[in-house]
Amino acid sequence: MEMLIGEYRNTLDEKGRVSFPSKLRAVLQQNELWVTQGLDHCLMLFTTEEWTKLKERVVGSVSVFDKQKREVLRRFIGPAARIEFDKSGRLSIPQNLRDFASLKMGGECVILGIDKYMELWDSEEYAKNAEESEESFQMAAQSMGDILL
User: Fold this and answer.
1) How far apart are CA 83 and CA 93, in angstroms?
2) What stretches of the chain show up as alpha helix (H) in DSSP?
3) Rounded distance, CA 31 to CA 85, Å?
């Protein structure tokens, strides 16, 4: 599979659907994705293959007797949903996940392709996160300087 990379902007319609970018859709070899709560109040989208691998690694490494790790299961694995593209190439985002990511009906959202997964953001939250994380991004980029260039 080719890489899922790029930043795309679209609108969440009044039925909670978002048109999926044709460039990203062309890379996919299936008509479905998995969506779940991500970090920083975005949603994470995975192909079935990537979701299955990640879910198995997470579940296989977590003890239900470890309180912190149970939270990962509850917040990452528990709310996950399989969603299918409709005939128009749209994804219907479940209400609980729209609420988590502050996605607004009729509002702009950002789909960010990050190779093996994608993020779905409310555009205002995305801009706010980028601004708030600028300093830590600069430090992280500096620490990775030897592999970046």
Assistant:
1) 8
2) 22-27, 48-61, 67-72, 95-100, 123-132, 134-143, 145-148
3) 6
> Distance between CA atoms of 62 and 48, rounded to whole angstroms?
21
Q: Which residues contact 54 (CB under 8 A, 6 or more apart)?
A: 46
Q: Is the pLDDT of residue 80 over 90?
A: yes
Rg of the chain, C-alpha, whole Å? 16
Rounded Cα–Cα distance for residues 50 and 21 (Å)? 19
Render pLDDT for 134-143 as a digit per residue (tens, 0 to 9).
988 888 888 8
Residue 122 near residue 101, CB atoms below 8 Å: yes
**Paired sense of beta strands 108-115 and 32-37, if any:** unpaired
Nearest one of 28, 22, 15 to 93, comparing CA atoms: 15
- Given pLDDT bands bounded at 50, 70 and 90, which one contains residue 19? very high
H or E element at residue 79: none
